[in-house]
Amino acid sequence: MSSRSDITVKPIPTDAPSAPTEPDNRPRAKFDLRPYFGSSDLRYVQYLFSSTYLNLVPAGVRLRVMSPFVMGLWLAIFAIMLVAVPQFAGNLGWPIQLRLGLQIAVVVSSLGGGLLAFFWYVDKWIVTERVLQGLENDLKDPAAYYRGQNNDLKGNFWVFTINNEPVACIGIDQHLEPVMDRRATAYVRASARPRLADAPEIATAEWKGVAHILATVDDYIRLVLVGLVDLVLDGVEAVRGKKPAKQPILFEAHKPNEASVRRLAVKTEYQGHGLSTALLKRVAFWAHAHQIDYLYAETDELQTHMAQVLEKRHGYQKVSHIKLGPFQSKTVWKLDVKLWMSKELEARQKEQEEEKIRKEEEELKEYE
């Protein structure tokens, strides 16, 4: 089921000077909220998800920089370098002009280099990891994950298009069993890792002897480093007691009357225009039609705007707030679908009554 509408042209104010009217031949934008089509939409959906998430990197940097602990540590390192580096240069006999230039370089590198380091860390180890987690799990094949087979409905997935270009997406997930993270791989001990010296590329190299020696050295270095890690892990397991390795759970299981909102993403240049409202309403209507009583949604520490949209515009209630690290957290939201539906119907009825009154007033003006 899809919904379409056209952009309306803003009317000219009545107090504006009259001008010759000309037909407006400009093409109107076409809106369409439709189900996910499959392979033709896949790259658009993956791009929407990854690009909107990567745009949250500055928020992650800001969150860390504003921490009193990080700010204090940063200033302490800066103060030490500002004093120690010029003093060391003075001991080497550098002239005062060079030491002044060195102090300026320390200031620039401490500020600029520190920010670059934060951006690199948040982008590489926080945001990119979450993006890859989505792309290699449910968004690897949204149709298979969210819809399943015809007799095994697991949810649905939609895209919002403008002039046939997907600019937003959303999914509803109703898996009744825990969904495991496919990215998680079992740890491989040093003795079980394949040897680079045995690789076929080494046997076919132009300089076989040199290639074999370098590969052997690399194997021994990796064997020593990974072996040390194995020893540490063995020691920890010996003290704590060995526990069976568990594959991490990506999404928890739902009850038959529950579902979750997943992968809400709106293209950056279209954010702030109400597209998320249309998408979240589509999910709520679908949930009501499929006898789902409660909808859940999850936001992390970077998705503060999405959290406000869920709570203030759509009535989601905060269920829990889980700390996952010094700066990482997850918030779970819950929506009573029946209550939301009753409020939505009341709002629509009120709009219809107001529209009816407005038309009656316009008709009365014609007889004045």
Write structural notes for this entry.
The protein is of the alpha+beta class. It has two domains: 31-180 and 250-347, Aminopeptidase; 190-244. Helices cover 50% and strands 16% of the residues. The chain has helices at 39-54, 57-65, 68-91, 96-135, 142-146, 200-203, 208-240, 275-289, 304-313, 337-365; strands spanning 31-35, 155-162, 165-173, 179-180, 249-251, 258-266, 294-300, 317-323, 329-336. Helix 1 (39-54) packs antiparallel against helix 4 (96-135) and helix 8 (275-289) packs across helix 10. The longest helix is centred in the N-terminal third of the chain and has 40 residues, at 96-135. It holds the Pfam family Acetyltransf_1. The chain crosses the membrane at residues 69-89, 101-122. InterPro entries: Acyl_CoA_acyltransferase (IPR016181), GNAT_dom (IPR000182), NAT_camello-type (IPR050769). It comes from Apophysomyces ossiformis.
Summed up, the helix count is 10
CATH topology of the largest domain: Aminopeptidase
- Strands of the widest sheet, in order across it, are 1-2-3-6-7-9-8
Tell me the number of structural domains: 2
Shape: extended
Major β-sheet annotation:
7 strands, mixed
* Mean of all residue-level pLDDT scores: 85
Alpha-carbon Rg, integer: 29 Å
Binned strand content:
15-25%
Low-confidence stretches: 1-19
Structural class: alpha+beta
Number of E-type strands: 9
What helical percentage do the residues reach?
40-55%
CATH class of the largest domain: Alpha Beta
- Amino- and carboxy-terminal Cα gap: 45 Å
In CATH, the homologous superfamily of the largest domain goes by the name: Gcn5-related N-acetyltransferase (GNAT)
Annotated CATH architecture of the largest domain: 3-Layer(aba) Sandwich
Task: Please write the string of helix (H) and strand (E) elements.
Answer: EHHHHHEEEHHEEHEHEEH
Region (Disordered): 1-27, 347-368
Protein name: N-acetyltransferase domain-containing protein
Transmembrane segments: 69-89, 101-122
GO molecular function: N-acetyltransferase activity
